[in-house]
Design a protein that fits this description.
Length: about 210
């Protein structure tokens, strides 16, 4: 039951669609522009750097706040499995972001929310994620590639650090956490399936935070 509660709380936080709200304030539905995705990259390309960064911040913070709430609520009753409950909560945020019921389940791809989840987990994982993403993005300018590699790295780190005792949970809870992490990773790759096809064909659009000088 506690797992379902964490998922539902996370889903409620995930419904805060930063890009959609910003777009509506400007008189548009961002899902009708660019890639049609309600996320950071499409906002960056469609409405500019400021809107893109604000979208990333909002989507990232909503996951941090949700996980923080879960840890506060269950710190005494379920202290032995808080990392697992945090992951369930993060999964809920990502599902709420990707599939908001009030927007006909048309949301984003959950990468900024995942960034918030990683930040909530551990500083080492946060540092590795930052290095991975910006190392790839600044080299290739492919947001999708950087995002997917961060996800793959996150999954590997969950298992590596989990087995080394970083999360302080039983093996049964660790295995459950790995399963949830694997599902989130699979979802991320599924949401990026068209990007992967374009990457393989060298047709993926590159993204520049600031416009290239001509």
């Amino acid at each position: 039951m506690v797992r379902i509660i964490c998922l539902l709380i996370g889903y409620a936080f995930g419904l805060f669609q930063t890009s959609y709200i910003i777009g509506r304030l400007k008189g548009i539905d961002i899902r009708n522009y660019g890639s049609g995705n309600a996320g950071t990259t499409n906002m960056l390309r469609t409405m500019g750097t400021s809107a893109g960064l604000l979208t990333f911040f909002g989507d990232c913070v909503k996951c941090i706040l949700a996980v923080t709430l879960i840890r506060y609520l269950f710190r005494n009753s379920h202290g032995d499995m808080l990392p697992l409950l945090s992951l369930y909560c993060g999964a809920g945020v990502i599902l709420g972001h990707n599939y908001p019921f009030y927007l006909n389940f048309r949301g984003g791809k959950g990468i900024a929310a995942t960034a918030g989840l990683i930040i909530s987990f551990h500083s080492i994982m946060t540092t590795l994620g930052i290095i991975t993403f910006f190392g790839v993005f600044l080299t290739t300018h492919y947001v999708s590639l950087g995002s997917l590699l961060v996800y793959a790295g996150f999954m590997i780190e969950l298992v590596f650090f989990g087995q080394r005792g970083l999360f302080g949970m039983s093996q049964a809870h660790l295995l459950e956490m790995y399963a949830v992490g694997a599902c989130l990773t699979a979802l991320a790759f599924w949401k990026h399936r068209e990007n992967i096809k374009r990457l393989l064909k060298h047709e993926e659009r590159k993204t520049y935070v600031f416009k290239k000088k001509s």
